[in-house]
Amino acid sequence: MKYYFLFLLCVPMLLMSQTTAETAEQLFDSKQYSKAESFLVTAVAASPNDRQLIELLGDAYGYQKNWDKAIERYEYLVKMDDYNANYHYKYGGAKGMKALEVNKFKALGLIGDVKRAFKRAAELDPTHIEVRWAMVELYMQLPGIVGGSYKKSMKYANELENLSKVDGYLAKGYIYEYDDEAKKAEEYYKKAIRVGGSMTCYDKLTQLYEKNDQPLKAIANIEKSHKKHERNAMHYQIGKVAADYNLQLDKGEKCLYLYITNYTTKDGVPVSWAYYRLSQIFKHRGDKQKALEWINKAISKEKLDPFTEHKDKVLKM
Questions:
Q1: Same CATH topology for 32-125 and 236-317?
Q2: What is the pLDDT, as a whole number, of residue 194?
Q3: Which of the chain's termini has less CB crowding within 10 Å, N or C?
Q4: Whole-number Cα distances in Å, 108 to 58, 142, 146, 288
Q5: Are residues 206 and 221 in contact, defined by beta-carbon separation less than 8 angstroms?
Q6: What span, in angstroms and rounded, lies between the C-alpha atoms of 101 and 297?
Q7: pLDDT mean over 25-49
Q8: pLDDT tens digits, one per residue of 191-247
Q9: Top-level class of domain 127-230
Q10: Hey, where are the domains in the chain?
Q11: H/E/C letters for each residue in the chain?
Q12: CATH (one of 1.25.40.10, 2.40.160.20, 1.20.1050.10, 3.40.50.2300) for 32-125
């Protein structure tokens, strides 16, 4: 009987912890990271051994790029449970982000910890996709003198392919793109599109084409993506490429008008950037009045350096 009463006492605590976690997740979803941090600091103080809340607090610090505090929380979790792959992954990730912000000498001292944490996570969980992606990127971006390795990066890309064809193809596309092998990168991004066809797959190929000054291919790929996904953001992408490369201006103009007409905050790119792209298009056509009209609309929304610099160019026409 006494165990039954102990169980009844524990149930409210479990429910309270779950409710706290759900509230924190809702704050994350609405990007109220500072508020989530304050909320979780209080919650963790009340339940100092609740791993879920400690992890969420680490996440709150991470969202705000407070890497030192995020590292502290994740390191504590690793000590609590050395066999949890996700704790090692997050600890390594936070240390990796910290390494990007410090000088090269301090970064060298962090890289070893990052590699050990990622390797441990990968060993603990053979199906952990995120840590294998992290290893692919880490080994490609590190200079060889501190452990960078094309071979190791490809090893983890192969592991990804065994877990998920799409992730494997995207990882190999990334490796070849990073290594300036555009043809092979294109081949693997196309494979990812055939197998998965997500927005990410199409976006990777579009970005590759833009990076390699192939705007016509970029536009054609965006149009294929639009047929499948019908997202308003596609209209902006086509308008952007048209404006950047001074080609298919009529199509670019039409797409930007559609983007503006159907715009919602879910589209991602602020509408001011569509105004800016229209101004670019009219500048290409030599229409100073229209170009000035659109760039003024952009500036009225946001006074950004690219906008003001473009306006100076328009005024000099």
A1: yes
A2: 94
A3: N
A4: 23, 10, 8, 52
A5: yes
A6: 36
A7: 89
A8: 999 999 898 999 999 999 999 999 999 999 999 988 888 889 899 999 999 999 999
A9: mainly alpha
A10: 32-125, 127-230, 236-317
A11: CHHHHHHHHHHHHHHHHHHHHHHHHHHHHCCCHHHHHHHHHHHHHHCCCCHHHHHHHHHHHHHCCCHHHHHHHHHHHHHHCCCCHHHHHHHHHHHHHHHHHCCHHHHHHHHHHHHHHHHHHHHHCCCCHHHHHHHHHHHHHCCHHHCCCHHHHHHHHHHHHHHCHHHHHHHHHHHHHHCCCHHHHHHHHHHHHHHCCCHHHHHHHHHHHHHCCCHHHHHHHHHHHHHHHCCCHHHHHHHHHHHHHCCCHHHHHHHHHHHHHCCCHHHCCCHHHHHHHHHHHHHHCCCHHHHHHHHHHHHHHCCCHHHHHHHHHHHCC
A12: 1.25.40.10
Average pLDDT for the chain = 89
C-beta of residue 20 within 8 angstroms of C-beta of residue 52 = no
Phi, psi for residue 196 in degrees, rounded to 5: -110, -50
The CATH number of domain 236-317, selected from 3.40.720, 1.10.10, 1.25.40, 3.90.25:
1.25.40
What's this model's pTM, rounded to 2 decimal places?
0.78
C-alpha distances in angstroms, 313 versus 273, 280, 300? 17, 10, 18
Longest dimension (CA), the chain: 88
% of the chain residues with pLDDT over 70? 93
